[in-house]
Design goal:
452 residues; 19 helices; globular; binds isoleucine; mainly alpha; Hydantoin permease; transport
């Protein structure tokens, strides 16, 4: 790392800023698009219960570990790991944690941006107002979007440009500023939508669906789906939290902020679930509709319910904000690496990185139509990238992070950085040393088909 890059390392303006940007990273399509449909397809409350346990038992401890690595390393995910490996007298091969994260973030963003593009297209339609049509017409409309390379590539391009624009503004002037505007707005819109659900839709039905716990519905597939989703939703193993942690001042408490971040992310997912299922049940729609849940069922509901035009538009704006603040956090790790390794200025780094993601995203967009015959390991490009990153790369990075923080770093250094009461520290430390790695290995073996 050049000395100039090192001394010029930016910092968030305070703990509130770190909280907001990290919540901005965590709260994304994962909360509003993926969580509701996964809950809907995995038996409702059973999934919610396991998911909450995973967040608390694996997600929060690893979120703290990642923030700690970034703050102590003071570099990109790769640079931070090099510094920390040297400090621990360990092999520099640990830098692989940084590389997996950055490559993973690059690959995730290429399809994340295409999905965010669907949302932009629907935001546009919502602004015009969804026409009241029969149920099948909404499924057909979603199919027509997927079949149109032009529309998919156009909106993917718009979304990448929006994300690039924020990251170009820098750590405080771009990322922090955007989050300070969008996150409170997102929260406000969400609370409004839940209120709307209570007044105009069926909130009690949504509440029962999410919280009427029935432990007998928990099975192995629910368990694994919930664990994988805990990683995705907290942005773990993608270099994002290490990078954001590297801009964190030393006086901010990592455990306290980490808990607050995971709490806020979970709250948003649950509120989004309440808002969405209130509408789904009030309209007599199917909760297990799969990935098309918010895109196929909600527009139908918005086209029929009172105030649906305005509510529909607010809903899609909320999803755009969520996706946007997450995409930024997937770009920043790569930008910080290009800056550190190749002395590239922010502008050049953003252009190089975004061009690469954009090109791969075009291939993803085409995989839904013109190139749908092209498969890798039997999967279309979209599914292949999703599986590779969320089911293999992220858990692998998470496992290595737990092993590094729990077994390789000197305990005194970890303690110095985490700084919490010694009893709580011992609990956290043991979770990172034993529980998290074992749990991740179990998911992993399930995914590669050894068990499950
Ligand atoms: N955590 C976010 C989400 O839940 C992103 C995941 C960054 C790729 O959508």
């Amino acid at each position: 790392m050049s000395e100039q890059a090192q001394t010029a390392r930016a910092h968030w303006s305070g703990r509130w800023a770190f909280f907001l940007v990290t919540v901005g990273s965590a709260v994304g399509l994962g909360n509003i698009w993926k969580f509701p449909y996964m809950t809907g397809s995995n038996g409702g409350s059973a999934f919610v219960l396991v998911y909450l346990c995973c967040i608390l038992g694996i997600g929060v401890p690893l979120l703290m570990a990642e923030s700690m690595l970034g703050r102590r390393g003071q570099g990109s995910p790769v640079g931070s790991m090099r510094v920390l490996a040297d400090e621990a007298g360990a092999t520099r091969l640990w830098q692989v944690i940084g590389y997996i994260g950055i490559v993973g973030a690059f690959l995730i963003l290429s399809f994340y941006s295409v999905v965010a593009g669907w949302v932009l297209d629907y935001t546009w339609q919502a602004a015009e107002g969804f026409k009241a049509l029969p149920k099948e017409a909404f499924a057909e409309a979603f199919g027509a979007l997927l079949a149109s390379p032009g529309r998919l590539i156009f909106w993917h391009t718009v979304f990448m440009a929006m994300s690039a624009l924020v990251v170009l503004g820098g750590v405080t002037g771009g990322i922090e500023r955007a989050n300070k505007i969008m996150m409170p707005a997102l929260f406000g819109i969400l609370v409004f939508l839940v209120g709307y659900g209570a007044v105009a839709a069926d909130l009690p039905a949504a509440w029962r669906f999410l919280f009427h716990f029935d432990p007998s519905a928990i099975n192995r597939s629910v368990l694994f789906a919930a664990m994988g989703h805990a990683f995705f939703t907290l942005s773990l193993g993608m270099g994002a939290i290490i990078t954001y942690g590297s801009y964190l001042e030393r006086d901010v408490s990592i455990p306290r902020t980490g808990l607050a971040i995971a709490g806020a992310d979970t709250l948003v997912a649950l509120l989004a679930g309440l808002a969405i299922f209130s509408i789904v049940f009030a309209q007599g729609l199917e909760p297990a509709a799969g990935p098309g849940l918010i895109l196929q069922t909600l527009p139908l509901a918005f086209s029929q319910m009172p105030g649906g035009h305005a509510v529909g538009l607010l809903f899609f704006v909320l999803v755009v904000f969520a996706a946007w603040t997450s995409a930024i956090s997937l770009l920043e790790p790569g930008v910080s690496l290009l800056n550190e390794r190749f002395d590239m200025g922010r502008k050049q780094a953003v252009v190089v990185l975004c061009s690469g993601v954009w090109l791969l995203g075009i291939a993803v967009a085409l995989s839904f139509n013109d190139w749908s015959g092209f498969t890798l390991f039997g999967l279309g490009l979209f599914d292949f990238l999703d599986t590779l990153t969320t089911k293999i790369m992220m858990p692998l990075a998470g496992l290595l992070i737990a092993l590094f923080a729990g077994w390789t770093m000197k305990r005194a250094h970890v303690f110095d950085e985490i700084r919490m009461g010694s009893r709580v520290f011992v609990l956290w430390y043991n979770v990172v040393r034993y529980l998290s790695p074992v749990a991740i290995v179990i998911i992993f073996l399930n995914v590669v088909g050894v068990i499950g």
